[in-house]
């Protein structure tokens, strides 16, 4: 039999973004371990997981939703979770801000004028929002005429996108597709 079947099931439920059914758990486990697993065995382990998380010492519980299972925070913690959601919703980025942030990430240090030349539109608002969200930082001033500010990504940028360093960003050649070019490539 599969080692630590209960923990395997618990991991599947935890990793699922929406409820996961017993049938889906069975299919995934059988495909992974190439062993027959009964629905009864899965139900037994799900019941044990549900009982474990029913204890007051856990902030989350196993909930039966839409014919499946999902880990959710217990109602007691609604206030703090609600505050987190409010806090995080303030950090959502518009398409314009994402485009500006991408330019800064790949081209830093870069001036506002250079960003606007790449995007083709005014970037005042996007840069201001990125500075407020602390995803972008001012690196200094350029040596060019007027000494414009130089922008770069902040350490929070890496946290926001779940990377350890800028080297983990996709390479531009992997992101830019042939359909983004006008005319033939041999012109």
Q: What topology emerges from the helices and strands here?
A:
Elements: H1 5-15, H2 22-33, H3 39-54, E1 60-65, E2 68-73, H4 78-89, H5 95-107, E3 110-111, H6 112-119, H7 124-132, E4 136-141, E5 149-153, H8 155-161, H9 172-175
Antiparallel strand pairs: 1-2, 3-5, 4-5
Helix pairs in contact: 1-3, 5-7
The appropriate CATH architecture of the largest domain is: Orthogonal Bundle
Count structural domains: 2
Span of the ends, CA to CA: 62 Å
CATH class of the largest domain: Mainly Alpha
Strand content: 5-15%
| SSE pattern, N- to C-terminal | HHHEEHHEHHEEHH
Could you explain how this protein is built, in words?
The protein has 187 residues and is an alpha+beta fold. It has 2 domains: 73 residues, Winged helix-like DNA-binding domain superfamily/Winged helix DNA-binding domain (Arc Repressor Mutant, subunit A), CATH 1.10.10; 83 residues, Orthogonal Bundle (Arc Repressor Mutant, subunit A). Helices cover 49% and strands 13% of the residues. It contains 9 helices and 5 strands, in the order H-H-H-E-E-H-H-E-H-H-E-E-H-H. The strands form 2 sheets. Strands 3-5-4 form a 3-stranded antiparallel β-sheet. Strand 4 and strand 5 form a beta hairpin. Helix 1 packs across helix 3. This is SMC-Scp complex subunit ScpB. It comes from Albibacterium profundi.
């Amino acid at each position: 039999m599969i080692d630590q079947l209960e923990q395997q099931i618990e991991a599947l439920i935890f990793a699922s973004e929406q409820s996961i059914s017993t049938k889906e758990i069975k299919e995934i486990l059988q495909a992974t371990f190439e062993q027959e697993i009964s629905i009864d065995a899965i139900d037994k382990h799900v019941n044990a997981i549900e009982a474990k998380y029913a204890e007051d010492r856990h902030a989350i519980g196993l909930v039966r939703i839409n014919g499946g299972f999902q880990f959710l925070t217990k109602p007691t913690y609604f206030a703090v979770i609600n505050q987190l959601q409010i806090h995080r919703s303030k950090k959502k980025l518009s398409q314009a801000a994402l485009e500006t942030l991408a330019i800064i990430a790949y081209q830093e240090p870069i001036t506002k004028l250079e960003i606007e030349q790449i995007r083709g539109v005014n970037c005042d608002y996007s840069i201001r929002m990125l500075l407020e969200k602390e995803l972008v930082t001012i690196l200094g001033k350029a040596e060019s005429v007027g000494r414009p500010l130089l922008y770069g990504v902040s350490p929070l940028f890496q946290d926001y996108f779940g990377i350890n360093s800028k080297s983990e960003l996709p390479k531009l050649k992997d992101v830019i597709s042939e359909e983004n070019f006008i005319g033939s490539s041999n012109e």
